[in-house]
Structures are given as C-alpha cells and as structure tokens.
Amino acid sequence: MRVSIIRRVGRSVLVVLLATTASFALLRLAPGDATTGSVEGRGRSVAARAALAERLGLERPLPVQLARYAGDVLRGRLGVSSSEGRPVVAVLGDALPATVLLSGTALVLATLLGMCIGTLHGWRPDSRGARVAATALTAGYAMPEVVLGTALLAVFALHLGLFPAGGLDDPLVALTGSGMVRWRDRGWHLVLPATALALSWSAGLVRQQRQAVRAMAADPHVRAARARGVAPWRLLMRHVLRPSVAGSVALLGTMLPAVVGGTIVVESLFSWPGMGSLLVQAVTLRDAPLVGGIVIVVSAAVAAGSLLTELLVSRLDPRLRTDETPRP
To answer: What is the distance between the alpha carbons of residues 16 and 10, in angstroms, rounded to a whole number?
Structure first.
C-alpha cells in the first residue's frame, strides 16, 4: 500500500509539471505577448514595449524560456505577475480563499443532495418525491453552468431581488459591518453561485448512488437480513449504505477536473473574485507567470483530491485494497 501511494504521488507531481509547462508554452505561442497588458507596458511606445520584452526574456527562443521557467518553478519561484505588478504568490493568496469557499460549499451541497436523493430513490424507487427531485437534478445537469447560472441570476437576483447579482460581499458592509454581519452578507452572496455549481454536479452522484443502492438491496445477505425481520432503516444504514458509498466517492474523484472548469465559468458569471476570474484575466493579458501559478495550484489540488479519493475508496471498500509490497 505504501509503495502504491508513493507511485501515485510521483505521478501526481509529474502531471503538475507537465500541465504547468504545457500551459506556459501554449500561452507563449498564442498571438500577442505580456507587454501590452503588463503594468509597465500599458500606454508605452513600441520601442519601450520592445525593451520590456527583452528584459522579460520574451525575445529568447521558446525552449530557453521553458527551461528557465521550469527551473524557477522547481526552486519555488513563481515570478512576478506582469498584469498585477506583484509577486504571483501574493496574487494567488488573495484569490484562493474565495475559490475554496465557493467550490467547497458547492461540493458539500452537491454531495449531500446527490447522496441523499440517490439513496432514497434507490431504496424506495416508487417514491414520487425522490423521482421528482432526481428528474429536476438531471435537468440541471443537462444545462451548462453558464445557462443555469444565468437563469438563477435572472429569476432570483434581477426579477425577484432575493439575492445579490454578483461579487463576494457588499462594499459598505465589508467596511462598516461587524464580523458576524460581514459573514452573513458573504453567505448571502454565496447562495446563487454555489447553488448553480451544486445543481450541475449532483445529478451524476444521484444516478451512481441510486444504482449502487439498488444493487446492494438485491444482494443475498441483504435479502436474508430483510427476511429475518431487520428494520428497513437499520438495514439501509448497516448493510446497504456503506458499501454503496464507495462508488459515489470514486465518482467524485473523476469529477474534480469538471469541478474546476465549472468553477471558472461560474466565477466569471457572478463576478466572484477567485481563481477562475483571475485565470480569465491572466489569459486575456498574456500574463504567463500568473497563468503558470494558477495551473500549478489547480492541478496540484486536482491531483491531491484524486489521491485522497482513491485512499478513501479503498478504506470504505476493503475489496479494493491491494498490498503492493514486493515479496521476498
């Protein structure tokens, strides 16, 4: 097991390095460069921007730029953002908490919705409420995040005025409100973007959990326990739920890249100041160091989440555990 973990960690590190290098190279090959969007190059003449490009190393061959950037990354140097004029680490530190708050809330909400509705639908397939909820979530899954988010904005923010249309918080509340008031205002701003993401992510969990519960309910040992007179809810909790959860947890691991993509779309739509909005800005301004830093953080989070999911699945389902220790 320990050897398997070491191999997975090594593969994860390799994936992060390849993703970072590929994104850096693609941004360098795209039309334009960082001089027009950088703090020092805005409004400058062509000669001034050429001098800036030479100082930034943009005139060097692409392999040389890649080698230099890879060496800096391996030494923990992410450079300075050309569009912000600040170290990349500082820029990421400002945006990362907002993304963690949004994606974490949406993932927890999607997991609760998917697991609860899927379990109820699989255990009681004739339940009308479970069928209606599963159908509604499937309809939400069929719509792209941008369409679902726009619909939520139009109905609940613009038409009914129940929630803010975007942003992380109200500027006046952020300046004058107490700690509890600021957190309540931030939670109010969080409702619509987190709901848009949760509705998009939960339908797959509903289908997976429903099928797993149905399969476990038909298992001989569950049918034998039912014949012995075990109470239905005790039967569900003790004999059905834990084995069926492993497949849904594994599905969460495969959903992580889609989670990242959906977060980028929703953050841009709701003007949420997180990593997604920052990535769109960095790509638009050809800010290669900032794009590279974002890719490193995101790919590392996806790799770590996938590794954690595999470990959790093997913990929930002992049949998946393997001992890869070399035999003498």
So the answer is: 10
**What residue type is 276 in one-letter code?**
G
Mean pLDDT within 20-29: 76
The answer as to CATH 3.40.850.10 being correct for domain 98-284 is no
Say what the pLDDT of residue 325 is: 40
**pLDDT, average across residues 106-116:** 88
The residue assigned the tokens 């339940």 is: 127
Domains of the chain, by residue range, sit at 1-83+285-328, 98-284
Instruction: Give tens-digit pLDDT for 255-301.
Output: 777 777 778 889 988 989 988 888 888 888 878 788 888 888 888 88
CA triple 102-104-110, angle to 5 deg:
100
Neighbours of 208 (CB within 10 A): 22
Helix pair 275-284, 88-123: axis angle to 10 deg: 130
Please give the Cα distance from 137 to 131 (Å, whole number).
Answer: 10
Backbone dihedral region for residue 30 (phi beyond 0: left; psi -120 to 50: alpha; all else: beta):
beta
